[in-house]
Amino acid sequence: MKTIIKLEELGLFILGIYLFSLLNYEWWWFLVLILAPDFSMLGYILNTKIGAYSYNLFHHKGLSVLLYLAGCYLKIELLQLVGVILFSHAAMDRIFGYGLKYEKGFKYTHLGEIGK
Fold first, then answer.
1. Whose CA is closest to 111, among 17, 18, 8?
2. Phi-psi region of 4 (alpha: psi -120 to 50; beta: other; left: phi over 0)
3. 115 by DSSP, 3-state: which?
4. What are the distances in angstroms from CA 103 to CA 93, 106, 109?
5. Burial class for 86, CB neighbours closer than 10 Å (0-12, 13-18, 19+)
6. How many CB atoms lie within 10 A of CB 80?
7. pTM tops 0.90, yes or no
8. DSSP for 32-45?
9. What residues pair up with 65 in beta bridges, in sequence order?
């Protein structure tokens, strides 16, 4: 089953790359920004509750889709870029088994415990 989920996330990552290709940004922007959502892990410096909340906020696909669609509707390409990067990053993370976090700690995710 995990292989099917990884393949699904790979498809979503490829979709994110395609959506990025529709924007008027150079490709190097994708490479630079794809890891930017991981700065949300800095919330763990304060405590696990804030860390999980900030991480999940920046890794939630629903939010990324809303941002992208709002950017399309409002014709704000920067908002579309933010949505695409958040979406692509979340898909990439899930390919590697990093899911949304529980308040218990960073390694406890909706996809299971990291490292097991």
1. 8
2. alpha
3. coil
4. 18, 8, 9
5. buried
6. 24
7. yes
8. HHTTGGGGGGGGGG
9. none
Q: Which residues of the chain have pLDDT under 50?
A: none
Six-digit token pair at 16?
């994110």
Q: How far apart are CA 13 and CA 10, in angstroms?
A: 5
Angle CA 8–11–94, to nearest 5: 55
DSSP per-residue string spanning 77-113? HHHHHHHHHHHHHHHHHHHTT--PEETTEEEEETTEE
For 22-54, how does the pLDDT look when each residue is reduced to its tens digit (9 = 90+)?
999 999 999 999 999 999 999 999 999 999 999
* DSSP string computed for 36-73: GGGGGGGGGGT-HHHHHHHHHHHT-HHHHHHHHHHHHH
CB atoms within 10 A of CB 84: 28
Q: Give the tokens for residue 60.
A: 């939630």
Q: In what order do the strands lie in the sheet with 101-102?
A: 101-102, 105-109, 112-113
